[in-house]
Amino acid sequence: MKAFVFNGPGKKAVEERPKPEISAPTDAVVKLLKTTICGTDLHILKGDVPTCTPGRILGHEGVGVVDKVGNAVTAFKPGDHVIISCISSCGTCEYCRRGMYSHCINGGWILGNRIDGTQAEFVRTPFADTSLYHAPAGAEEDALVMLSDILPTGFECGVLNGKVQPGSTVAIVGAGPIGLAALLTAQFYAPAEIIMIDLDDNRLEMSTRFGATAVVNNKDGNAVEKVMKMTGGRGVDTAIEAVGVPASFITCEDIVAPGGVIANVGVHGVKADLHLERLWDRNISITTRLVDTSTTPMLLKTVQSRRIDAKKLITHRFKFDQVLDAYETFGAAANTHALKVLIEF
Amino acid sequence: MKAFVFNGPGKKAVEERPKPEISAPTDAVVKLLKTTICGTDLHILKGDVPTCTPGRILGHEGVGVVDKVGNAVTAFKPGDHVIISCISSCGTCEYCRRGMYSHCINGGWILGNRIDGTQAEFVRTPFADTSLYHAPAGAEEDALVMLSDILPTGFECGVLNGKVQPGSTVAIVGAGPIGLAALLTAQFYAPAEIIMIDLDDNRLEMSTRFGATAVVNNKDGNAVEKVMKMTGGRGVDTAIEAVGVPASFITCEDIVAPGGVIANVGVHGVKADLHLERLWDRNISITTRLVDTSTTPMLLKTVQSRRIDAKKLITHRFKFDQVLDAYETFGAAANTHALKVLIEF
Amino acid sequence: MKAFVFNGPGKKAVEERPKPEISAPTDAVVKLLKTTICGTDLHILKGDVPTCTPGRILGHEGVGVVDKVGNAVTAFKPGDHVIISCISSCGTCEYCRRGMYSHCINGGWILGNRIDGTQAEFVRTPFADTSLYHAPAGAEEDALVMLSDILPTGFECGVLNGKVQPGSTVAIVGAGPIGLAALLTAQFYAPAEIIMIDLDDNRLEMSTRFGATAVVNNKDGNAVEKVMKMTGGRGVDTAIEAVGVPASFITCEDIVAPGGVIANVGVHGVKADLHLERLWDRNISITTRLVDTSTTPMLLKTVQSRRIDAKKLITHRFKFDQVLDAYETFGAAANTHALKVLIEF
Amino acid sequence: MKAFVFNGPGKKAVEERPKPEISAPTDAVVKLLKTTICGTDLHILKGDVPTCTPGRILGHEGVGVVDKVGNAVTAFKPGDHVIISCISSCGTCEYCRRGMYSHCINGGWILGNRIDGTQAEFVRTPFADTSLYHAPAGAEEDALVMLSDILPTGFECGVLNGKVQPGSTVAIVGAGPIGLAALLTAQFYAPAEIIMIDLDDNRLEMSTRFGATAVVNNKDGNAVEKVMKMTGGRGVDTAIEAVGVPASFITCEDIVAPGGVIANVGVHGVKADLHLERLWDRNISITTRLVDTSTTPMLLKTVQSRRIDAKKLITHRFKFDQVLDAYETFGAAANTHALKVLIEF
User: Fold this and answer.
1) Does A231 touch chain B (CB under 8 A)?
2) What is the DSSP letter of B158?
3) What is the Cα D112 distance to its own chain's centre?
4) B275 touches chain A (CB under 8 A)
5) Subunits that touch chain B (at least 3 Cβ pairs < 8 angstroms)?
6) What structural domains does chain A harbor?
């Protein structure tokens, strides 16, 4: 089969690989219908993710058709259309029993990282019963690809952790795909204000179309001042960090109201200053989270009932034999205005 | 001043009364701009509410302008436009400190019940600092009248107690004003399905316009069967009782899914059968609640940010000198299709 | 092997049966070390549990040693000492993913009910990875038997559902084994008062030894009056029903304070009157629950750290060849003062 | 009257002052019976609290007898024995309505800071109805002094924010008075392990007497290593920071388990490093809080029902004319082993 392979920092290729086999009784093999590329895949290609070694097939998102299942798989059978979760959950360990699948001691984020992933014609998915989800008959499969990772990430790490509520005021720092996923799913809770902060006018314009009530371009570095003015000096109930750098985290520290939450979604490479000398008495919470995908069933229902139009996040479409073009387009998002690129088999 | 007065079962009149005075340092006197009629007012007129004695000025909803304040009132001053909460909260007792204002030992539902109410040119409101809310500059005052009682009742007793969630399935038994208020505010949480059940096709049609995803006319008594079919035999996550009779409560018992909630909103005059022999192992919750109006600030923000169009509930408008007509229209809702009738001064 | 068998209403016997085999890859076979008898077993023997058919080996509690495992079992291996949960959880279905194992669509309460149980030398346990728990090295195995059912039942259905809190006032109606399990586990939350209500002075005396702060014998039918007096007319924050008859449920309705919870633990055979005409405006919750055993890991830690002495519930000990005597003793609890009877192999 | 006065950095004196008067209708004047000294008072004396200006009478803790009340005070009358909360709550503002009294826009921590405090024969307490609590008849008033500040601080900021649960593992960094208050109140929730970390063997010995299950002296800087070993490499569910310096906060970052909470209690003067590069995917929460004293009624019940022995925190006793000695003893805690010093009038 054809597969997109990471061959060490800066080296990527489409290669011919053997079709994966069932190796544990809880495995499934899934034939891909659609996949996509995540910002994390770009990090891997740069060499920033040491757990992902050269020779790895990348990709942790996708929908497909079950091809084979191990003898302990009971919830899926060949022919079933499925959503592949970016998180593999054994369903058995202490963390899985608490719904914290991200920290599954037997799984977690392994697809396209520690084991081969979904940017290939077939993928082996461990713990199929607890890591795949049935695609409803008649569902738009493009939208379902957004359920593998980006929607639950924005929703769980940003919106749920951020305790967005009817009438509350939310700011999202970073209007990339993940910030926009938080923006879309924040609207489940009818907040009064959602302020998007970014440096890119195109992304801010898109934010407005996606439901932001206000946008702030922080090119001049005065986002904090503007947000404080918009909120009557009070600050925001929820500040969602969706970039992953110290400056945007500190912006969140500066705009969170007493009693508010800073929900970190961004992937950070370095430490940030925590201004406890100002925050110790502000009654705030700061949360971090790797997506658990525990809300996938809930999100699936919101997609099915059209409470959310997840396809909006898809800006470009490619065939799998154009996967290198897809990476180029996604990697040059500032110019191409790409959010999610859909890759079809 | 003119006032609408309950003179004993079946007897009502517009009478001339003295303008109320400040009698405690925490009082305000408010000049009414708009008021409305509640189903409870009809109960009082029938003689069903023993705490309300003949001679009482009715009404517990309204917006107005502060006329006078006692010397301990600090949050309001003459000239302020205010929403009058149906619940008077002392802010001091054990229940108020827990946010359970409905059970305030010094207040609670007293307006238009134990003390004179808002269907008059002026009203004395006790505990003004904790029982009035500032009407925002430029707000639609018609919509704000809905914040006195009906919106917080549907929201707190039905939606919040019912734990409505993104993607969940909700049924509301009763599509009168209070059921519709629950329907409107349930949409804050993006449930996948909201099924309205009633006997009146007009109300069901209105439900569809207000956002119901399905409607069931229970004239033939098979609502349970239909709801179970709609939900694949599973039942609903949230069943909201918005009628106040045993039959509709038992419908809720019959349609609630394992792990679900029955949120009672209706005012009941008799007991109902609780089928514990079927429910003891179903992991359900049943909640009751007199509205606390603790969510009034939250709801005010949703109205201001247009997350909800509260004016939709208003079907008829009267001047205060037509208050008897207003009662007639509201009392004959089956024919007049009245939901809330707005009375302007 | 020897097994205790239900042979139809009123008929029980110790019989020779074949040792169970692995029949699904997720099964284990466990050699019993200790088991016990549950009130439910007595219900089965009376013929009250239609899902349990003649020929069934009873028992859903116990500790043992793993004898064999299916090829998909990864968390247990032969020789491991284990606690057998009364609830079999597939770990995969919608309910298991929500932690509501009691409603597992592939399992639930099946041991000693729909499939053969633990009152035998060996038992086949389905879904071993998610239905067995490792017995810690050096643990008192007598105490661990209490973790199969009675402690999680009292804790989950009574204490957690009842929202017991530091400083709160709790009443438990019924001082049988399950009421006492609620009493023991309620103390995890440091309530100010725990009032036990029963008709049996011996059980009330035992309640005092187990930590009740007050006891009420309801022989004269004035428990409600006494509890209201003890609580200054306010009622209790949490009322736990641990009998399973309408009268005790109605006692709970009569003593619950505004804002309080009635947590039903009892198994009910008939409906009860729900006095909505008094309760609709009291802001109360009523909960029902079949134990999920989702707190078994938590409870295991409290037993291991000696925050609770679970062995206290064991009043009698038998060898398995005395199992008929054990049933006789347990069935005549009023005379024998039996709580839990331990049966050793 | 006699009063203890801050006269600028390093300058303190007992001075003669006029007895305070009622200045607002919601005020009370309270005659002190007992007071105590807080670590914050020492900070003020050093000049570290700019809101507290020279000439201020210090003190924000105490029990006393109501001497006079303003005409809007309804819950208290002269002669009532009361606990004075360290937080003054207007009961009316947005924050008070949310139970976040610490951020009351009209009050908050003002006693002994922005207005004269409790280290004097009399004190004026604003917002008496919502800032005083009735001392129960027959209560030990020494214990009640601990309810003004130290117990709610340890409980709210440490234990509640830290989500201590039955069976969980807790570490408290800092075994001073506030860490010990957290230790005492953590036991309301029956955690399996409470590990105290400090540099002072005397305090650690006291911790063991107060209920710690393990103690770690961090003199050699290897507390992290020891805690990780004690917890099998997993870390703690709750890490409570009770010192207020970067090093102890970072210790918390290093020992918190995935899914755990860092609850900050300490008063910080400088920023700390937040190692987001390690924590972004650990699913942790960090909380900060100035005590709200919203749990005072709950804590009062636990003291009254002897679930906690708050007097344990009192190590020394003085008469008010020895207040300078009391400060000396409290200020030299390392040598005197002082926790709380009780000052009687």
Assistant:
1) no
2) I
3) 14
4) no
5) A, C, D
6) 2-149+292-344 (3.90.180.10), 153-287 (3.40.50.720)
Q: Report in angstroms the alpha-carbon separations of C309 from C142, C210, C306.
A: 11, 10, 6
pLDDT in tens, A314-325: 999 999 999 999
Give tens-digit pLDDT for D11-65: 999 999 999 999 999 999 999 999 999 999 999 999 999 999 999 999 999 999 9
CA nearest neighbour of B248 among B161, B176, B309, B297: B176
A 22-61 residues inside an 8 A Cβ radius of C: 24-26
Partner-chain residue, chosen from D259, D272, D276, that has the shortest CB–CB distance to A264: D276
Backbone angles phi, psi at C314, to 5 degrees: -90, 120
Interface test with C, best of B102, B283, B284, B287 (most C CBs within 10 A): B283
In total, chain C counts a number of residues equal to 345
Q: Do D74 and B94 touch (CB under 8 A)?
A: no
The three-point CA angle B151-B155-B160 to 5° equals 165
Helices within chain D (DSSP H only): 39-46, 94-97, 128-131, 141-145, 150-152, 177-186, 201-210, 223-230, 246-255, 276-279, 296-304, 323-331, 333-336
- What pLDDT sits at residue A103? 98
Residue whose C-alpha is closest to residue A117's, from A131, A105, A134, A129:
A131
pLDDT the model gives residue D182? 98
Residue A180 three-state SS: helix
Mean pLDDT taken over chain D: 97
Residue D113 · residue D49 · CB < 8 Å: yes
Q: What ipTM does the predicted assembly reach? A: 0.97
What DSSP line would sit under B185-200, residue for residue? HHGGG--SEEEEEES-
Q: What are phi and psi of A179, to 5 degrees?
A: -65, -40
Handedness of CA B77, B82, B88, B89 (dihedral sign): negative
Contact C295, C160 (CB under 8 A): yes
Q: Please report how many Cα atoms fall inside a 13 Å half-sphere around the Cα of residue A199, on the Cβ side.
A: 8
First-to-final CA distance of chain A: 12
What residue type is assigned to position C58 of the chain? L
Instruction: Give the residue among D179, D183, D91, D167 at the shortest CA–CA distance from D129.
Output: D91
Q: What does the block give as tokens for D161?
A: 């924010």
Residues forming beta bridges with residue C124, ordered by sequence position: C29
- Residue pairs between chains A and C whose CB atoms are closer than 8 Å: 49
Q: List Cβ neighbours of D66 (8 Å cut-off, separation of 6 or more).
A: D28, D29, D30, D31, D76, D77, D78, D79, D80, D81, D82, D128, D132
Residue A6, φ and ψ in degrees, nearest 5: -85, 120
* pLDDT the model gives residue C256: 98
| Contact yes or no for D130/D106 (Cβ under 8 A) | no
Asked if B258 and C103 come within 8 Å (Cβ–Cβ), the reply is: yes
Q: Which two tokens stand for residue A227?
A: 């947000």
Helices (H) and strands (E) in chain A, counts: 13, 17
What is the DSSP code (8-state) at residue A20?
P
3-state secondary structure of B4: strand
Which pLDDT does position C268 carry in this prediction?
A: 95
CA proximity to A154, closest of A131, A170, A141, A139: A170
Closest CA to A127 of A157, A98, A160, A105: A105
CA-to-CA separations, D153 to B231, C39, C141, D314, in angstroms, rounded: 48, 45, 40, 16
Provide the pLDDT for residue A171.
98
Contacts of C220 (CB under 8 A, 6+ apart): none
Copy the structure tokens of residue A157.
Answer: 């790490």
Residues with Cβ within 8 Å of B306's Cβ and at least 6 positions away in sequence, in order, are none
- DSSP structure class, residue D281: T
Token readout for C259 is 């804002």
pLDDT in tens, C96-148: 999 999 999 999 999 999 999 999 999 999 999 999 999 999 899 999 999 99
